Amino acid sequence: MCPLSEKTLNPPIKPSTARVFSTEEKQALYDIINSRRDVRNEFLSTPIKDDVLTRILSAAHKAPSVGLSQPWNFILIKDAARRAKIHEAFEKANDEAAQMFPADKQGAYRALKLEGIKKSPLNICITCDRTRGGKVVLGRTHNNDMDLYSTVCAVQNLWLAARAEGVGIGWVSIFNNQDLKDILHIPEHVEIVAFLCAGYVSELFKEPELEARGWAKRIPVEELIKTETWHA
Amino acid sequence: MCPLSEKTLNPPIKPSTARVFSTEEKQALYDIINSRRDVRNEFLSTPIKDDVLTRILSAAHKAPSVGLSQPWNFILIKDAARRAKIHEAFEKANDEAAQMFPADKQGAYRALKLEGIKKSPLNICITCDRTRGGKVVLGRTHNNDMDLYSTVCAVQNLWLAARAEGVGIGWVSIFNNQDLKDILHIPEHVEIVAFLCAGYVSELFKEPELEARGWAKRIPVEELIKTETWHA
Q: What's domain A40-203's architecture?
């Protein structure tokens, strides 16, 4: 067999020159990261174009996943009756949530808008199939939740791609997940990781809305960096 | 009080015009997302410049966090003796891991390089302080692990910023986390979410290394998208 055909049949497994990004390209990423918001009220009703949605979901699918298990699924929900049921599930959970806060914070909590389930034209439920990749998954042997973490990486990729495309995302976490699983017919072995509201936005808050409304403060990043060990 | 000073004291809380990204800026994000790799062997020994590291960590800190709790910390580890100990902890766990695979896969598993702890010039341990934000955190009332998920969003922001800056990242998940906690003096209430190896790279795999080496296959994204419910 001549060396050429051997090379063709058995291409060498090796890395190639890495893409170098320009100052402008780096700045684009930082501007996308810095202007990304958790959107609750700014959704426009215009449906998201199919090609835009495809690019956003493809970006999610390019996330890292433990053992390349790609444990995620994306359920796209537009039906108004189904979203009304989901909204009811949110309201039930949110009433429970309000009562968990100290009495003097409940008023402020109830004044916050925390979801855009019916206002946004699209809801996306991102799940993690805990059985995908088989019984033993490379990299998950000692940390069983690595598949959930992989799915969150997909959520963050999706969120940044959406921001770049002019689509706002709001992550709604105030649900009893079993309510959502019942409404969406999600089987036992599949876990809901994120429930997202999605729609075009023309306006966004400059800072996180919870910061703008005085609910919480930004911590300077320097205070969160440690050297060598937790105590240093 | 004149209207002007009232406005100054109580600025209106409202969104402003959202930044629109150009085709080139969108493409930069997609190129960063698509060329991001889980790096094990391509690390150069050059130390990461301080300003580059600051930008990468600041990008992580701009991740969404439940109730704006910002539960993450970043422990930067350079000390060679400490990294040698961490590498020992990896090797112990990796031996245990190899034995979990079916006999006919153990050889292939052991042939894979799964970490760059000593080769990379910097290790970053990203933790989640489960007590940050107080006893009741907005958005965490029904999903207690939302703080862990927020921390994973920070990891993914960091990973993309690193790619843009020419820095490779490898996530090592094959540890008994208590071993790492002992080495890094991490207290009980703080959970390790990600242990990353970081260093400049000039070469990268074009596809995920596990795909290039035939360990796992990419699933077409279309197969992962569902409409309205899990079964549709």
A: 3-Layer(aba) Sandwich (3.40)
